[in-house]
């Protein structure tokens, strides 16, 4: 009688997994304990490689698209910043030009009113600014001041060739710097711009003058025989 080969019987090439589920997943029927023990476990599908793992072509494509999108966002952001800077410069230029045009228009209008303001000033100096003329004159001066017109030049002001026009120059020992001693016609400013220079008389210091008379006679130079009185 041949003996069973114990080396071959009961040997399996791998682990045996039993499906012990009470419900058959294919038929949906209730299994007996013997059928559940004999049924092999279903094979699990292999997990797909995650995106970005080596060997994943989809992950490499996604990374490239993300890099390209970030580069495009950076370009659009720089374009937006450049447009904003250009618009800000444009607004500044427009505002500056608007101020220049306004100042030029005011200068033209107020320049036509200067002779009338001169007449009002002369009438005030001579005591002739009274009645209805006084009210009109003061209203005109107030309006000109409100529009930015500023009158300048008074006696005692230091002479400034940038804003004064010297009609006459006289010497005076009472001043140390060129000084306005009389105003023929006041000047006017609009902001920092001279609309009309003031016409004035300017006094300047006469400086040191040589004293004459009352001084001691000059001593003769060495070797000078003048005034010796010796006849040879």
TrEMBL record:
Keywords per UniProt: Chaperone, Cytoplasm, Stress response
Location of region: Disordered: 1-77, 205-232
* Region forming the signal peptide: none
- Record localization: Cytoplasm
> Which residues fall in a compositionally biased region of kind Low complexity?
33-66
Q: What is its main location?
A: cytoplasm
UniProt-listed InterPro entries = GrpE, GrpE_CC, GrpE_head
Composition-biased stretches, type Acidic residues, lie in 221-232
Coiled-coil annotated residue ranges, if any: none
Q: What does this protein do?
A: Participates actively in the response to hyperosmotic and heat shock by preventing the aggregation of stress-denatured proteins, in association with DnaK and GrpE. It is the nucleotide exchange factor for DnaK and may function as a thermosensor. Unfolded proteins bind initially to DnaJ; upon interaction with the DnaJ-bound protein, DnaK hydrolyzes its bound ATP, resulting in the formation of a stable complex. GrpE releases ADP from DnaK; ATP binding to DnaK triggers the release of the substrate protein, thus completing the reaction cycle.
Regarding protein family, the annotation reads: Belongs to the GrpE family.
How does it associate, per the subunit comment? Homodimer.
Q: Which HAMAP family match?
A: GrpE (MF_01151)
What is this protein identified as? Protein GrpE
What is the organism of origin for this protein?
Nocardiopsis sediminis
